[in-house]
Design brief:
elongated; alpha+beta; 418 residues; 10% strand; 6 strands
């Protein structure tokens, strides 16, 4: 197993070197987005006043009410000077900004026309506070391991933003880039979060194996479904600014990255479960460990699959409501690419999760087996059950902790049943 993981690590490093972005694709895409009016400068600003009244183009025959917003940008060509946004017609349907004096907003600016427009609410301060509260929660409950998980999360974000996106824009195959990125995240994230333990290595092997199976299943059914990748607004825009990207492959790449997050949870749980079962009873043989671990895995999988479904549906609630009022059959709704892609992602990812349970459990059980002859566990295994219970109870009362996991716990045995 270590030889296979070493080979996967070498292939991952080679993939990172081969697909490392040079930034040319990102520059070209940015220029293309600017030519079609998709990019503009953004400045933070503070609302100075908001007033409502007749529009400048209102007449006695056709009265119209408008909202006028005056703001002061903190940077840009009119920094610290009052600027008035174009009028917002209150008689028309659609979203109309409703700030109050003192609110922080984001305004867009077109240099060619010296035109300002309302872009969004400035919610960055709220997000920083939320991130701080989240970090405190993780550190208080997870302590040092919580800190490592936060670092792992930041590393994952850096890989996605600093490697995946620029590399795909450079013209590299999205699916291959996603596979390399998923491997980088798996290797770095597992050992950084859980430490260099035997359970971590087994969970990593199970994750990579299940990820490969997910890739095969997803490639088969995504190809059969003939997804174009332009059903969403983002996909259609991307086809204009960077025409060299295979959007159908990009969908499959997203499915691979999405499946990795759930696999981490399942595989590390199964490897740890088998380890704890063996520590509780060192006399358990590999088939018994596999059966007991699989019972735990079935319960975990049942809840995880439902979690995936709820996560995808929750992210698409507005879309779900629009289809609900479209007066179409559920079969036709499911056939639309927007919905069909989410269905395919959920089902293919769930099959990978299901496969990860027996795969990781079998690896942990086969590498566990019985305690090696003459090991410390043998001394406990030779005692009757009541004596072993007294030893464990005595350890709890005396404060003696469990011994850390070692590769001896997972040593292969020639006398195993399988």
């Amino acid at each position: 197993m270590l030889v296979l993981l070493a080979g996967a690590l070498v292939a991952t490093v080679a993939g990172v070197i081969s697909f490392w972005p040079d930034g040319a694709g990102l520059t070209t895409a940015t220029e293309g987005a600017g030519q079609v009016g998709l990019t503009s400068e953004r400045f933070a600003a503070q609302v100075q006043s908001v007033r409502e009244g007749p529009c400048s183009y209102s007449t006695a025959e056709h009265p119209q009410n408008c909202r006028t917003i005056v703001f002061v940008p903190s940077s840009g060509p009119n920094a610290h000077a009052a600027v008035t946004l174009p009028e917002f017609n209150l008689e028309q349907t659609g979203y109309v900004p409703d700030p109050v004096p003192g609110d922080r907003i984001v305004v867009g600016y077109e240099p060619s026309t010296e035109f300002y427009f309302y872009a969004d609410v400035d919610r960055r301060a709220t997000l920083w506070v939320l991130a701080g509260v989240f970090a405190v929660f993780v550190l208080v409950l997870g302590r040092f391991r919580g800190l490592r998980s936060l670092i792992s999360m930041v590393l994952t974000g850096l890989v996605l933003v600093g490697f995946v996106a620029p590399s795909i824009l450079d013209g590299h195959e999205p699916l291959l880039v996603a596979v390399v990125a998923a491997s980088v995240i798996a290797f770095a994230g597992f050992y950084l979060t859980h430490g260099p333990r035997p359970e971590t290595t087994i969970a990593l092997a199970g994750t990579l194996g299940a990820l490969g199976l997910t890739l095969g299943i997803s490639a088969l059914f995504f190809g059969a479904a003939r997804f174009s990748g332009v059903a969403t607004e983002e996909g259609a825009i991307l086809s204009f600014v960077s025409g060299g990207i295979d959007l159908s492959s990009l969908l499959l790449a997203g499915a691979m990255i999405g499946a990795l997050g759930a696999l981490d949870d399942v595989t590390i749980t199964q490897a740890t479960t088998v380890t704890e079962l063996r520590r509780a009873d060192p006399t358990l043989r590999a088939p018994q460990l596999f059966t007991a671990g699989l019972r735990v895995g079935r319960a975990h999988i049942a809840s995880t699959i439902n979690t995936l479904l709820l996560a995808y549906v929750g992210a698409a609630m507005p879309l779900l409501l629009l289809f609900a009022v479209s007066d179409q059959s559920w079969g036709m709704v499911a056939n639309s690419e927007l919905i069909a892609v989410e269905i395919a992602r959920t089902l293919c990812g769930s099959m990978g999760l299901v496969a990860a349970v027996p795969l990781t459990t079998a690896l942990a059980a086969a590498l566990g087996g019985e305690a090696p002859s003459g090991s410390k566990q043998d001394s406990g295994a030779a005692r009757p059950p009541a004596a072993r219970r007294r030893v464990r109870i005595g350890r709890r009362h005396t404060g003696e902790g469990r011994p850390p996991a070692s590769w001896d716990d997972f040593a292969p045995r020639e006398d195993l049943d399988f």
